[in-house]
Amino acid sequence: SVEILLKITQPFTNHNGGNLEFGPDGYLYIGTGDGGSGGDPGNRAQDITDQLLGKMLRIDVSTVPYSIPASNPFVGITGDDEIWHVGLRNPWRFSFDRETGDLWIGDVGQGNWEEVDFEESGSGGGRNYGWRCYEGNKDFNTSGCSPKNTMTFPVHEYFSDENNLGCSVTGGYVYRGNKYPSLYGTYIYGDY
After folding, report:
1. Cα–Cα distance measured from residue 27 to residue 23, given in angstroms and rounded to the nearest whole number
2. Which of 16, 99, 102, 118 is the least buried, fewest Cβ under 10 Å from its Cβ?
3. What is the C-alpha separation between 192 and 177, in angstroms, rounded?
4. 127 near 152, Cβ under 8 Å?
C-alpha cells in the first residue's frame, strides 16, 4: 500500500532531487532539485515562499499526511514551514554520519563545479547553500542575491570538464568501518 504525503510540481524533467533519509532526530529529510532547465530560471532555489524546489525539506511523518517539526527554521516566519535548507541545485544524494549525526550533501553543479555541502549535527537548519547565486565557491548569477556572507559555501568543490574528470557528484558516506582504519571518519563520495 502507499500513502502519498507530499506532491511537488516539477516545471522541467531534470533536477528533481532523488534522496530521502531519516535523520538521527527521527524526521524525514527530502532533497529537492531546483526543478530543472539551466541556471534555475525561476530562481526557485532561493525562493522560500510557496516554493519547495532547490531545498532540503524536513517533515514529521509520524502523522498522516505529515506535520512540521516546530524547530524548523521557517516556522512562524515568512517561508514554507517544510524548508530546512535553501540554495541547492540538485542534492542527488545526501547522508547522515552514523556516529556524529552530521549531514553531508552531494550537490550537482551547473557545468563547472561540483560541491559537497556540510551541516554539523544540532545546527538548527536554515542555511543557504548559495545556488543560483554561486556554483560551488564561484559567482554564477548574483543578481538580486543576499549578501555573500549569508551563504554557506561547500566544504569541498571540484572542477568538472568536458574530459569527464568529474561531471556529476553523486554523494557518499562517512566511513565508519573497521577494515580500513586510516579512512575512519573520512567522507567518501562518487561521481557519475
Report:
1. 6
2. 99
3. 24
4. yes
